[in-house]
Q: What sequence folds into this?
């Protein structure tokens, strides 16, 4: 019978993150390590097991059949490890936390932020709801959320903490679709919406006629309408999909100024809520610093 071996949890965590992100670089970012270090750790794990776990080319990163078999047990081992540490280090950080967030911001920024929090505090049960800022604020004020991320104008009354600034752009089906428009058809969210107001205020400032051509409560619905040529919309630049065209520096459309995201915690928040708020702030500060 071969001698039993102990798997290195650091190597397993690296392996799992590569499987989840599909990238050595993104796994390294989550771990705070370089791509070369991540590659070395995968090599060490494969040598320990005597199995090839990841197939990698300049364009493709995927698990081998052996890697797929390892993934489930590896995740289970990491969950047990993280739960044991959380029990010792953060016994008071437990319970349910209800977070409300705008759909587009959640899509772009929060998955890895919340995943990292869940790894660090496995005894906290996150309940995340995506909705329009108006609905988020109404639910928050009625006690339905413990904390919310909401869009607001920089000039708005200072409720909560600013955690993100968003440069905005016009988004069209393509550049040709706006060439001969006398009146700008807008694809927007229902009122009140910061992006909708930003679009109409900018057009009014230059006396450019506009009309509402399509209203949707979801990001997917708005993108589909723009892709179909029903009008233009306003989005953060980094959210523009490759199927659409960001329009800026164009004489046909006025410039758009950035907006911002604020974090608001309920008064008297419990320790898990405060810890999630601190985690979101620090994670977004790091991301903003990396973008600068």
A:
């Amino acid at each position: 019978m071969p001698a039993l071996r102990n798997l290195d949890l650091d190597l397993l965590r690296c392996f799992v993150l590569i499987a989840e992100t599909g990238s050595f670089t993104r796994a390294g970012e989550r771990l705070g390590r370089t791509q070369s270090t991540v590659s070395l750790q995968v090599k060490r794990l494969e040598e320990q097991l005597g199995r090839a776990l990841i197939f990698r080319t300049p364009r493709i990163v995927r698990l081998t059949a052996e890697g797929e078999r390892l993934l489930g047990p590896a995740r289970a081992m990491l969950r047990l490890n993280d739960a044991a540490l959380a029990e010792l280090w953060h016994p008071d950080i437990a319970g349910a936390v209800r977070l409300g967030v705008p759909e587009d911001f959640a899509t772009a920024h929060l998955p890895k932020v919340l995943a990292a929090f869940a790894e660090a505090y496995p005894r906290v049960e996150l309940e995340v709801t995506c909705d329009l800022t108006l609905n988020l604020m109404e639910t928050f004020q009625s006690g339905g959320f413990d904390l919310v991320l909401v869009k607001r104008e920089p000039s708005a009354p200072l409720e909560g903490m600013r955690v993100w600034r968003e440069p905005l752009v016009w988004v069209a089906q393509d550049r040709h679709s706006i060439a001969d428009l006398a009146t700008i058809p807008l694809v927007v969210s229902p009122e009140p919406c910061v992006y909708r107001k930003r679009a109409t205020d900018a057009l009014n400032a230059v006396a450019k006629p506009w009309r509402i051509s399509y209203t949707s409560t979801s990001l997917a619905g708005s993108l589909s309408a723009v892709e179909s040529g029903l009008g233009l919309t306003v989005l953060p630049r980094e959210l523009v999909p490759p199927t659409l065209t960001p329009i800026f520096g164009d004489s046909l459309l006025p410039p758009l100024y950035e907006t911002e995201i604020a974090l608001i915690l309920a008064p008297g928040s419990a320790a898990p809520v405060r810890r999630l708020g601190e985690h979101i702030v620090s994670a977004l500060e790091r991301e903003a610093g990396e973008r600068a």
Observations:
- The two ends are 56 Å apart (CA to CA).
- DSSP finds nine helices and twelve strands in the chain.
